[in-house]
UniProtKB/TrEMBL annotation:
Organism, as annotated: Bombiscardovia apis
Xref: InterPro entries: Restrct_endonuc_typeI_TRD_sf
Top-level taxonomic group: Bacteria
Keyword DNA-binding listed: yes
Listed name of the protein: Type I restriction modification DNA specificity domain-containing protein
Gene3D superfamilies, per database record: DNA methylase specificity domains
UniProtKB keywords: DNA-binding, Restriction system
């Protein structure tokens, strides 16, 4: 089954043309994406709220071909043309074999060997100098759906793994700060 049968891939906007109320527009950046890689936020089944990022949104870097869950630090920023937001349409009326859970989607695009192989091929076939995906490419990725109970287990394990890595990273950062402060006092 193709991903465009399960999700909607909404591309970002040209931030200079974004029609957002308010005076200051903060654009979602690769630095935000890197921070969100270690987000502790739970994925949500977001609906289209325009190009504005909300905590828990599933975001794809079209340049890297990776997926993250938006953290509260990214909330309110605008996704530009290097990113896409994944929307999960109301699937309650769909049969169980046509539902994809948000956490499982994160697993598929970041970890599943078959999907990663398709992403590499799609990026290699890009006609741009910078090998990148398009929203349409993501929709063309083929996946084999498993029962939602298994999706939930795999997705939750993937999210838990990311959260553990995030906490370990924070712990290491705090340790480095402590060592730095201690060394400063010694000098």
């Amino acid at each position: 089954m193709r991903l465009d049968e399960l999700v909607v891939v909404q591309g970002g906007v040209n931030s200079s043309r974004a029609n957002i109320s308010g005076s200051v527009i903060k654009e979602y950046s690769m630095a935000d994406f890197d921070r969100d890689r270690y987000s502790l936020a739970e994925p949500t089944r977001s609906s289209w709220s325009g190009p504005v990022v909300e905590t828990g949104d599933i975001l794809v870097s079209l340049v890297r071909g990776e997926v993250v869950i938006a953290s509260n630090f990214s909330s309110g920023k605008i996704i530009g043309q290097n990113f896409a937001k994944i929307l999960f349409p109301n699937q309650e009326n769909d049969s169980a074999d046509k539902r994809i859970l948000a956490a499982y989607f994160v697993y598929l695009l970041n970890e599943d060997p078959e999907v990663l192989s398709q992403i590499r091929i799609l990026r290699a076939g890009s006609s741009t100098v910078q090998k990148r995906l398009t929203s349409q490419n993501i929709g063309n990725i083929k996946v084999d759906l498993i029962p939602t109970e298994q999706q939930e287990k795999i997705g939750n394990l993937c999210i838990l793994s990311r959260q553990i890595v995030s906490l370990q990273k924070r712990r290491l950062d705090l340790w480095e700060q402590k060592v730095h402060t201690t060394l400063q006092r010694c000098v």
